[in-house]
Amino acid sequence: MFIVVKNTVNMKEFDVVIVGGGMVGATVACGLGGSNLKVAVIEQAIPDEFTTEQPHDLRVSALSLASKKILEVVGAWDGVLNRRYCPFRRMRVWETAGDTEFNSDDIELPELGYIVENRVTQLALLDQLANFDNVELIAPVSIKTINYSASGQTTLILSDDSKLKTNMLVAADGGNSRVRQTVGLGVTSWDYQQHAMVIYVETDYEQQDITWQRFVPSGPQAFLPLTGNYGSIVWYNSADEVRRLKTLSSDALIAELTATFPECLGKINQVLGVASFPLKRQHAQQYVKAGVALVGDAAHMINPLAGQGVNIGLLDAAALAEVLVEANEKGENIGDVSVLHRYEKMRRNENLRMMTVMDAFYRVFSNKILPIKFIRNFGLGLAERISPVKNKVTRMAIGLDGNLPKLARGKSLSKS
Prior knowledge:
Layout: E1 11-19, H1 23-32, E2 39-42, E3 60-64, H2 65-73, H3 77-81, E4 86-88, E5 90-94, E6 99-103, E7 113-117, H4 118-129, E8 135-138, E9 143-147, E10 154-158, E11 163-171, H5 178-183, E12 187-203, E13 210-216, E14 219-225, E15 230-237, H6 239-246, H7 250-260, E16 268-284, E17 288-289, E18 292-294, E19 300-301, H8 309-329, H9 337-365, H10 370-385, H11 387-397
Parallel strand pairs: 1-2, 1-11, 2-8, 5-13, 11-18
Antiparallel strand pairs: 3-7, 4-7, 5-6, 9-10, 10-11, 12-15, 12-16, 13-14, 14-15, 16-19, 17-18
Helix pairs in contact: 1-4, 1-8, 8-9
């Protein structure tokens, strides 16, 4: 179990202060664990502990193999395995005439990824933080004031009136990042005019080893397997339709799901939870400035179509930890903008590429124009028949393609 530290000294100084102890922020901290850097993680709310008797959380993520490697190297993956996770070997994408299935056997791997509750991943990371003498978790606490200085130390005043000083501030505080807004890093954003409805269900089928995504005129429909006879359905639709669906009784919603979703899902016995959120794209115009770096949703919000949001956030965390550790070992000022630009160079274009691919995928498959429907169906059929293309797409989807940071390649950040 992790240890929560409350700051009892009026003023403390740290080399790095990470605002946000969620999956991404905690991964940055674990990546810096064991280094010569003195690190603090500020978190508003510690998640409830986990027991196997609890129902699955609504918030789950499809962790890629690259994310698994990062969690393994920082020592948190065992904490996931000791709680709850669901491996999957296949991914199926289809429309009326086009269909392709990606299989881990095709690239000679045992799995393509893992469906894991967000709380499970966060708890595993927070557990690991307790093993590092150079990392303090300060929680539960909020921030009153951020006094940012580009030329000196930044001071944070917390809700318990304690103060922290640091040369390096990491924003891991989500899409509405207070740190990003305070230091004046702008974003470009737009709404997709659609909502995603997440529905936690019990089905007749035992755990499946496949995730699938089907495209219909109203938007994508997806299924993520969970342990036991449970699954997570993601239903993309207009905001008005999602609002209507959320007002239905459990029996009426099951009837809608049965009429709308394919038989391969299996009979739905119960609806156990429902949530929804608007689809939005957002990208920071810069990831860094002197003494500040953005990671995860603070830097980018991506269409959740292929579940890549958390995965690219963990790659951000791994890359930033790598840059900070290596700069510190060389005796460089870790808050210098020339150092932080190395992180931005590693991640911003990679993230932009993924966001652009997801946007193109979303727009092509949401389009009802007949020539475009023909092209996308033809493309799916082509991908099914040409193995090198299919395998390239598979490797990209599971995070094993592109310029990967050391942790995602299974390498330690230490000199040894």
